[in-house]
Predict the 3D structure of the following.
Amino acid sequence: MKNAIKHLAHLMQQAEPGAEFSFEFWDGERLNLGDQPAVILRLKSEESAARLLGDGFLGFGEAYMAGDLEVEGELQELLRLGIAARFDQKEPSFWKKLWLLPGCLKSKNSVRRAPRNISHHYDLGDDSLEQAQQNKYEHIARKLMLSPGDRLVDIGCGWGWMLIYAAQKYGVNGLGNTISRHQYEYAKRKIEELGLEDQIEVVLEDYRHLKGEFDKLVSIGMFEHVGKEYISSFMKNPPELLIKGGLGLLHTIGKETASPADPWTMRYIFPGNYLPNLPEVAHHMGRARLSILDVENLRLHYARTLDCWAHNFEKEADKVRERLGESFTRMWQLYLHASSAGFKYAETRLYQILFSNGLNNQLPMTREHVYSGRDS
């Protein structure tokens, strides 16, 4: 067992020759690679080592949540080295896959199942980084060329803030949907507090049931929850909701090429999660007669956001631990750092895909309207 762990350590060193780190074993032996390790991985038992070796990141994540291994120093550095050594490519064992199967089947995002999957992640509570969010909304508003009187539909509107921003700054009328009751109640209350009931509305409804005619469409961070088998269903919405030539923007985490889903994240963080690859999205948009106008990759922006979330989470970790327990706290610490590492060092991307419903020859030919004269 030790030899296999040592081999993994040397693979990490070969992938990143300048890296300095240490592995500590359950019997006190320590493997030092470098004089000043930025991170120390402490394996408390042979069982924790077996989980790590047998099931890759799934085994690492479960052992970390259980406290069977400890990480001292920079967790993201350890994750970066694991990515460099392609440790994230480790397949779960056959028996682990069998154990995961019921959960995978339950995570399929049918109309009936989807609200439970969304509730698992979003009904826990959420705090945003306000200025970063405002910048994001402004960036999207400029791409969509929002103007007073535009009818905007926000598919998977979350807490309602994109609609609120668009209504307050650009004078749009809008409709948003969510299947999270927590988000719905918050957005409805906030819209009423701001006196925007005559402009915008949020409904507790599945995206497949939305009706209406709109000039502009946006979907931010919802597409990852649709699921591979429902992508074509999702793509039926923009042609049905948008006027001819109307603009839409899909803001989604994704990948450049297809690769297996991470079973740890699927099981513990995002049931029903599926990260689409860019060719797949383009294929389904094309079949729906949506014309792709622009694709922007904002991966480092989201990595920075995740680092800020992780920093804020650490400041409140004791309160979270007291309320929800040690395993939950460690789960979210790992998720935030692993997600950031995925955007920085692995294959995770953040795409904004601008499109029109059919061809529109009246649009600007450059991005100048998006980036010139920014005031936020």
Summary: The CA atoms of residues 1 and 50 lie 7 Å apart. Residues 114-371 form a domain with the Rossmann fold fold (CATH 3.40.50.150). The two ends are 55 Å apart (CA to CA).
